[in-house]
């Protein structure tokens, strides 16, 4: 069954189709939520909330954008709203992971990573979201524009400014990447 | 830093940031656990935590309008009794303000979801779901404009702009060409409104299962 058929059935309230849509998209939605939240519990909450919202309003989805784009838009909206309230990012899991990667990535030592992570955390929300979606998660500017409700040009500009801000904040570590 | 350094930095950044908030290699996406919560919420007919995103039925709309009016009337009566008691007068004022504040926030949250939906879809005329939703929001918007919630100048300006967009969306009922749609639904207008709505909606906690 293709996505269009699944969607039609889910819009008619078929729980099997809803589950199929969930299975297809949940991994990427969860990973996106985790990137934004940096916390497994929050990522779980955001993912659940995103799918509940999505299924509630599936009837209004017209298929003008891809279903995945639409789901990511809801996920980002849910996550940013949640994070605005939570105002904290748990980093322990990520830091442990960063250290485990250090051995086969000599230019990304833990201290440098920590500085980078702190610099990313300090980015304004808009810059940070675009940076994470584009450079880390691999979304295109078109997908980001659709997800955040901004123009493609705005997405590009925010990415440019995010990188510039990071470059500025990590200027004293220039040797680490220019070596 | 020269252009070559910039390129080198961007390449390094992309590689190094891959570990930022990454799932640990052995981590599993808790698919089944999340699905159980989602399915339970769907079965219980729970609405999302931030806002109810599906258009309500006319009955629900009428009930909401009546409830909003009842709250307003109740608060009005409270503020008019015991006028000689200054201590008791101050409490209803703050209560009134808080109540309308909550009502406004709920409404603006719904409006944010609506504008996002409109912003994402280049829908055709006679999209009945969207237009039903617009009609519902328009009723509440006008109720709020006529209530004490509309006395705040900033909020009033926002509600008036929202009202304009909602009226435009409803105008589409009589429109049949995409050209007309584009004229009516100015993306810039939506963007600006969305930004202002987001700025006026305090963040809420995520849904707890």
Protein described:
The complex is a heterodimer of chains A (179) and B (209). With 179 residues, chain A is mainly alpha-helical. Helix content of chain A is 75%, strand content 0%. Chain A is built from 10 helices and no strands. In chain A, helix 1 packs across helix 2 and helix 2 packs across helix 4 (67-86). In chain A, 46% of the residues are buried. With 209 residues, chain B is an all-alpha fold. Chain B has 8 helices and no strands. Chain B has helices at 3-16, 31-43, 58-80, 86-120, 128-145, 153-171, 178-184, 187-200. Residues 47-62, 81-91 and 174-184 of chain B have low confidence and may be disordered. The chains are: A mainly alpha (179), B mainly alpha (209). At the A-B interface, helix 2, helix 3, helix 4, helix 5 and helix 6 of A face helix 1, helix 2, helix 4 and helix 5 of B.
The Cα radius of gyration of chain A reads: 18 Å
Largest sheet composition of chain A:
none
User: What is the helix content of chain A?
Assistant: over 70%
Strand content of chain B: under 5%
Sequence-ordered SSE layout with sheet pairings:
The complex is a heterodimer of chains A (179) and B (209).
Chain A: H1 3-11, H2 15-37, H3 40-56, H4 67-86, H5 92-101, H6 110-121, H7 125-136, H8 141-148, H9 152-169, H10 174-178
Helix pairs in contact in A: 1-2, 2-3, 2-4, 3-4, 4-8, 7-9, 8-9
Chain B: H1 3-16, H2 31-43, H3 58-80, H4 86-120, H5 128-145, H6 153-171, H7 178-184, H8 187-200
Helix pairs in contact in B: 3-4, 3-5, 4-5, 4-8, 5-6, 6-8
């Amino acid at each position: 069954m293709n996505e269009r058929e699944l969607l039609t059935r889910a819009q008619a309230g078929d729980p099997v189709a809803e589950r199929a849509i969930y299975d297809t998209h949940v991994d990427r939605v969860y990973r996106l939520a985790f990137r934004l939240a940096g916390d497994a519990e929050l990522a779980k909450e955001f993912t659940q909330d995103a799918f509940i919202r999505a299924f509630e309003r599936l009837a209004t989805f017209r298929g003008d954008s891809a279903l995945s784009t639409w789901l990511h838009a809801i996920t980002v909206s849910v996550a940013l709203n949640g994070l605005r309230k939570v105002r904290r990012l748990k980093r322990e899991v990520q830091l442990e992971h960063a250290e485990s990667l250090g051995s086969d990535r000599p230019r990304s030592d833990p201290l440098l990573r920590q500085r980078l992570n702190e610099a990313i955390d300090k980015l304004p929300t808009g810059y940070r979201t675009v940076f994470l979606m584009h450079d880390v998660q691999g979304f295109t500017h078109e997908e980001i524009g659709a997800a955040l409700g901004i123009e493609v040009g705005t997405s590009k500009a925010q990415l440019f400014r995010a990188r510039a801000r990071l470059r500025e904040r990590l200027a004293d570590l220039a040797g680490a990447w220019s070596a | 830093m020269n252009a070559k350094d910039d390129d080198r930095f961007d390449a390094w950044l992309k590689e190094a940031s891959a570990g930022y908030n990454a799932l640990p290699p052995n981590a599993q996406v808790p698919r089944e656990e999340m699905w159980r919560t989602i399915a339970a919420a769907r079965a219980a007919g729970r609405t999302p935590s931030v806002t109810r995103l599906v258009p309500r039925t006319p009955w629900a709309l009428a009930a909401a309008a009546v409830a909003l009016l009842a709250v307003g009337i109740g608060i009005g009566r409270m503020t008019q009794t015991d006028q000689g008691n200054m201590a008791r007068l101050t409490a209803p004022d703050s209560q009134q303000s808080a109540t309308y504040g909550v009502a406004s926030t709920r409404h603006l949250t719904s409006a944010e979801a609506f504008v996002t939906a409109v912003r994402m879809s280049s829908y055709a005329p006679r999209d009945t779901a969207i237009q039903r939703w617009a009609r519902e929001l328009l009723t509440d918007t006008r109720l709020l404009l006529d209530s004490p919630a509309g006395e705040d100048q900033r909020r009033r300006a926002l509600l008036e702009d929202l009202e304009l967009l909602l009226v435009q969306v409803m105008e589409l009922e009589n429109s049949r060409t995409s050209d007309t749609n584009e004229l009516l639904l100015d993306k810039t207008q939506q963007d600006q409104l969305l930004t202002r709505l987001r700025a006026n909606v305090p963040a809420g906690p995520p849904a707890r299962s």
